[in-house]
């Protein structure tokens, strides 16, 4: 702590004149701080430096004012300057110059003769303390550095020993053979894995030469590689030479060699390819074969098919679909189904065992058979009969006798220019056509039917984009009262105006669209758009008939969607008629029937479509609140012959329906004769080409409703 200077009774330190006042000392301290700061960086603010130097100045003034110079105080001040980091190249010099001029200022005449001596001794002591402090700091810093260096050396040695131990562990435990060799191939060190790969004992490998264990045919090439490595032409040598085991058997291996840093030797790593080759073969087999049956898969089959297409002999492609396998899997479990699949695969192979043929499993219960025909190859009919005869023989699994049949799609005399994928698709389409005719059937590839099927499938695939682009719209057909030709309502139909194919008939795409999720959204859109158009076109008091498909009817969200549409539409629920397929209601579960009941409870008119050809349809009239039945088109198109048993039965059926208070509608009417006959038979409403003319359904509901009467009843 800085002690106050002795006072001469007037507020000034004894023996001083210029630095007696506080103001003079502050000015000197400020100048000192400026000079020292210009010689080195000080980790203090300027105000802090001034305060510290002012305190040191006070202590020096106290030391010089005494009877005997207090050199120890001056030495402490020098050390304190070092502590404050005033250790620049000229920090001490500027300090001594400044203090000498300040301390030698005029003083009391009684002590003036001794002042220079006192100041010199004090400044010498300050310099001595300054130097000693720097020396002590340097020694301390060197000791710290030496200790840090010693600790770093010890840590480096510890890490080196740990690294060396790890390398030894890797060297000894590596599954790959490792050898350290001299430039001529002399083995300096080998690990156990290399001894195992070479089938040699450690003593047989010790002091040996690596090239002596290489097959003679590969030795020269390997020597050239090591020479290129030595000459710097290669950074690393990679090769697949054959080694020779103790028994003289060749062993394929992968060799990697590089120069050892800091020496003229090499480090060589040898890997046994036997296990890798085995694994690769297994993976290749799994990639190209079905895991369950062991048969080739679709990828392998396609590659083989491409190869056969380049051969001169004709070939036949069979696409096979097992009938009824899902019944076995669903009824008896997946395990039994898989067992039956394996048996079926074996039987398919056995049938074509005498032919140059490949049997493959595509997926689930579908197989492919490709036969390269010869003079003894059976014809298609005989081959299919043999396959079905073999499959139908009961196979006993868990004590249960199970049998299968198969449906086939066949492509004969495969065209050489066709792509394998195209041929497989053609066979698949033919198989689907056969499947629709029943189990155990088969169909040949028909290019005309195949082209139509592909076109229809392509249309369905593009339906989402067509809807978004505005190609899908709605058309309206009039509902006509046959008694007087009055238009009493309208039927909404999906309309597709294709940019290339023109206006498409709905039967070309609706059946296939049933397989997509889009069909549900289309049904809701038809209802909403139809209700809006009816209200806008002045037909809010007329019924709008919207036919639904089976999948639309099965949608559990249907009732809620329709309710939401009716809440925002002008027509009341009684003005909306929904056409429900009678066959779907008979075959489906309770969910579809419950959906129909909910729709009826909303006040919607329920219309049974395709009515009159399926036994049991009359029960629907008792189970559901049916408003109208629409006769099946096959009845409507039947020749209007008074002696026809079919039409006689239809007339009786119409009488029963009308007796129950239900309206009868005949759709797809084409001629006036048909309309008159069905009117006499009791049909009240009609629709179809007879009333729409050549232009078909119209898009403007207002023009349809405004027409009033349907004139074509008197034509055609």
From TrEMBL:
One of its GO terms (biological process) is regulation of DNA-templated transcription. InterPro entries: Biofilm_reg_signaling, EAL_dom, EAL_sf, GGDEF_dom, Nucleotide_cyclase, PAS, PAS-like_dom_sf, PAS_fold. Residues 313-447 form the GGDEF domain. Residues 163-233 form the PAS domain. SUPFAM superfamilies: EAL domain-like, Nucleotide cyclase, PYP-like sensor domain (PAS domain). Residues 1-21 are annotated as: Disordered. SMART domains: EAL, GGDEF, PAS. Residues 456-709 form the EAL domain. NCBIfam families: GGDEF, sensory_box. This is Histidine kinase. It comes from Amycolatopsis lurida NRRL 2430.
């Amino acid at each position: 702590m800085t002690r106050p200077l002795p006072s001469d009774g007037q507020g000034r330190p004894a023996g001083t004149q210029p630095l007696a006042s506080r103001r003079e000392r502050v000015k000197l301290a400020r100048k000192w701080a400026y000079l020292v700061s210009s010689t080195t960086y000080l980790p203090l603010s300027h105000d802090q430096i001034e305060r510290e130097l002012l305190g040191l100045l006070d202590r020096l003034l106290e030391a010089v004012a005494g009877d005997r110079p207090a050199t120890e105080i001056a030495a402490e001040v020098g050390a304190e300057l070092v502590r404050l980091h005033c250790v620049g190249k000229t920090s001490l010099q500027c300090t001594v110059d400044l203090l000498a001029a300040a301390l030698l200022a005029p003083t009391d005449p009684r002590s003036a003769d001794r002042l220079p001596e006192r100041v010199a001794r004090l400044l010498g002591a300050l310099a001595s303390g300054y130097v000693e402090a720097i020396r002590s700091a340097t020694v301390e810093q060197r000791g710290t550095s030496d200790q840090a260096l010693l600790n770093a050396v010890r840590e480096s040695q510890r890490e080196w020993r740990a690294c060396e131990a790890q390398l030894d562990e890797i060297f000894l435990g590596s599954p790959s053979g490792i050898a350290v060799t001299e430039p001529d191939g002399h083995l300096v060190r080998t690990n156990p894995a290399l001894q195992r790969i070479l089938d040699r004992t450690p003593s047989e490998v010790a002091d040996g030469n690596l090239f002596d264990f290489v097959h003679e045919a590969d030795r020269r090439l390997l020597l050239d590689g090591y020479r290129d490595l030595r000459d710097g032409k290669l950074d690393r040598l990679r090769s697949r030479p054959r080694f020779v085991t103790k028994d003289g058997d060749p062993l394929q291996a992968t060799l990697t060699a590089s120069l050892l840093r800091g020496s003229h030797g090499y480090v060589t790593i040898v890997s046994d390819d036997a296990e890798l080759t085995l694994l690769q073969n297994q993976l290749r087999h799994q990639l190209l074969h079905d895991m369950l049956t062991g048969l080739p898969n679709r990828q392998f089959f396609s590659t083989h098919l491409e190869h056969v297409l380049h051969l001169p002999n004709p070939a036949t492609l069979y696409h096979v679909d097992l009938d009824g396998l899902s019944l076995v899997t669903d009824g008896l479990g997946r395990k039994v189904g898989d067992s039956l699949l394996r048996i079926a695969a074996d039987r398919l192979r056995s049938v074509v065992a005498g032919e140059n043929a490949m049997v493959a499993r595509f997926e689930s219960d579908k197989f492919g058979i490709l036969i390269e025909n010869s003079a003894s190859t059976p014809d298609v009919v005989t081959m299919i009969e043999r396959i079905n005869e073999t499959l139908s023989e009961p196979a006993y699994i868990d004590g249960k006798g199970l049998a299968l049949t198969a449906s086939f799609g066949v492509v004969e005399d495969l065209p050489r220019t066709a792509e394998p994928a195209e041929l497989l698709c053609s066979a698949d389409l033919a198989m689907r056509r056969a499947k629709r005719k029943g189990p155990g059937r088969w169909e040949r590839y028909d290019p005309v039917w195949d082209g139509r099927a592909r076109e229809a499938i392509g249309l369905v695939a593009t339906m989402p984009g067509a809807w978004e682009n505005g190609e899908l719209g709605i058309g309206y057909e009039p509902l006509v009262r046959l008694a007087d030709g009055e238009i009493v309502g309208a039927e909404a139909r999906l309309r597709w105006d294709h940019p290339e194919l023109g206006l498409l008939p709905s039967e070309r795409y609706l059946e296939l669209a049933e397989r997509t999720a889009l069909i549900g959204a289309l049904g809701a859109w038809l209802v909403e758009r139809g209700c809006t158009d009816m209200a806008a076109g002045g037909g809010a008091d007329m019924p709008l008939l919207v036919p639904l498909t089976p999948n639309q009817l099965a949608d559990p969200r249907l009732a809620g969607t329709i309710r939401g549409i009716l809440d925002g539409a002008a027509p009341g629920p009684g003005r909306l008629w929904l056409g429900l397929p009678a066959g779907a209601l008979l075959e489906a579960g309770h969910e579809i029937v419950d959906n129909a009941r909910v729709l009826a409870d909303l006040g919607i008119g329920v219309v049974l479509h395709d009515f009159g050809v399926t036994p049991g349809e009359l029960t629907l009239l008792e189970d559901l609140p049916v408003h109208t039945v629409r006769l099946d088109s096959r009845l409507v198109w039947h020749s209007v012959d008074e002696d026809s048993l079919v039409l006689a039965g239809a007339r009786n059926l119409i009488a029963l329906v009308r007796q129950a208070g239900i309206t009868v509608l005949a759709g797809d009417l084409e001629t006036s004769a048909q309309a008159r006959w069905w009117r006499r038979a009791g049909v009240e409403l009609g629709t179809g080409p007879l009333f729409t003319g050549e232009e078909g359904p119209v898009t403007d509901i207002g023009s349809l409703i405004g027409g009033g009467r349907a004139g074509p009843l008197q034509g055609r």
